[in-house]
Amino acid sequence: MALKSLFRSFSIIFVLTLMLVGKTTAQSVLIPSPPQIAGTSYVLMDPKSGRIIMEENSHERLPPASLTKMMTAYIVERELDEGRISMSDMVPISVRAWKTEGSRTFIREGTSVPVETLLKGVIIQSGNDASVALAEFVAGSEGAFVDIMNQQAQILGMKDTNFENATGLPSPEHRSTAYDLAILARAIINDYPENYPIYAEKHFTYNNIRQPNRNSLLWRDDSVDGLKTGHTEEAGYCLVASAKRNDTRFIAVVMGTSSSESRSQEIQKMLNYGFRYYESERLFRAGQELMEARVWAGQSDQLSVGLTEDVYVTIPRGSRNDLESTVDLDSVIKAPIKVGDELGRVKVTLNGDVLVDQPVLALTEVPEGGFFKRIWDAIKLFFFQLF
């Protein structure tokens, strides 16, 4: 019999006991229907797990107004992170940027302004002039920057978004969705946390003009720390907000409300509902060993398997004890094994609903064993499978 034919694959399921430190026996969790929201579309998301708690028309393509500037800022932050620009770089202000209509940071043509100042002007003051200046600095022109914006949108999975400018000023095909904007907010928070505190700043002064952040929730709710408002006649009043209470964070998006006060009230309703009835739990840490697996024909007989990223779930408050976790692992794992090789799947369910279904990966490397080790393991495996 050929050596390889002895390594037949079959699966074995391991049941993992999730840590329940300090928890009492779970009981039925009763959750009311989400509140009614007075907006054209909306969504409430947990940025850690990506779970949607509530939504309505969240994939409807609508004008995003100045919510567009979240993508403008995200691309600038990416350029900063990758070292292609720095906060202290001086940006020359063009006539075109200076003349851009709408909300303004009040930069002046012919001057040079630091990237950091312009980024704050975009995020805090919603400056259209600052947005165009940064777009020209990063890509050479606003049109070229828009190409980058749309490429980045596709990379992030914003499938229903198309940008035509860096500001959000009205344009026929300039469209996004509540869901896509939640994805973008999630990326801003998770990818560049060092810059995220800017979104919580309440005021910014430039050219001796002090302007407030238009997100009034920053004054009303201490847990709110971002992100961006938007308004045009076509779009109505829009808001993307995020708040963190204890270890749980939510992102709320509402589009098409009737006033600045309404958008704040509707977002507050969504956030309060999420925090009242749901919580975010980290079940597994990146690099955490879930178990040791038997390896055949390798220099080592054992290898660690686990996950390379943190795994979070969003669950009703008080339901932690109802979670069930299993690993479906290929019981015949043959060397050579490289770090990151997929060896099975881990599933987490709550009352029959699958919350997590992710590949289990090798955390350690196991090179192939010598000839006699492989022969000996093949013989052992043959009898192991018989019994």
From TrEMBL:
<protein>
    <recommendedName>
        <fullName>serine-type D-Ala-D-Ala carboxypeptidase</fullName>
        <ecNumber>3.4.16.4</ecNumber>
    </recommendedName>
</protein>
<dbReference type="InterPro" id="IPR012338">
    <property type="entry name" value="Beta-lactam/transpept-like"/>
</dbReference>
<dbReference type="InterPro" id="IPR012907">
    <property type="entry name" value="Peptidase_S11_C"/>
</dbReference>
<keyword id="KW-0732">Signal</keyword>
<comment type="similarity">
    <text>Belongs to the peptidase S11 family.</text>
</comment>
<keyword id="KW-0121">Carboxypeptidase</keyword>
<comment type="function">
    <text>Removes C-terminal D-alanyl residues from sugar-peptide cell wall precursors.</text>
</comment>
<keyword id="KW-0133">Cell shape</keyword>
<dbReference type="InterPro" id="IPR018044">
    <property type="entry name" value="Peptidase_S11"/>
</dbReference>
<keyword id="KW-0961">Cell wall biogenesis/degradation</keyword>
<dbReference type="GO" id="GO:0004180">
    <property type="term" value="F:carboxypeptidase activity"/>
</dbReference>
<keyword id="KW-0573">Peptidoglycan synthesis</keyword>
<dbReference type="InterPro" id="IPR015956">
    <property type="entry name" value="Peniciliin-bd_prot_C_sf"/>
</dbReference>
<feature type="domain" description="Peptidase S11 D-Ala-D-Ala carboxypeptidase A C-terminal">
    <location>
        <begin position="278"/>
        <end position="368"/>
    </location>
</feature>
<dbReference type="InterPro" id="IPR037167">
    <property type="entry name" value="Peptidase_S11_C_sf"/>
</dbReference>
<dbReference type="InterPro" id="IPR001967">
    <property type="entry name" value="Peptidase_S11_N"/>
</dbReference>
<dbReference type="Pfam" id="PF00768">
    <property type="entry name" value="Peptidase_S11"/>
</dbReference>
<keyword id="KW-0645">Protease</keyword>
<dbReference type="Pfam" id="PF07943">
    <property type="entry name" value="PBP5_C"/>
</dbReference>
<keyword id="KW-0378">Hydrolase</keyword>
<comment type="pathway">
    <text>Cell wall biogenesis; peptidoglycan biosynthesis.</text>
</comment>
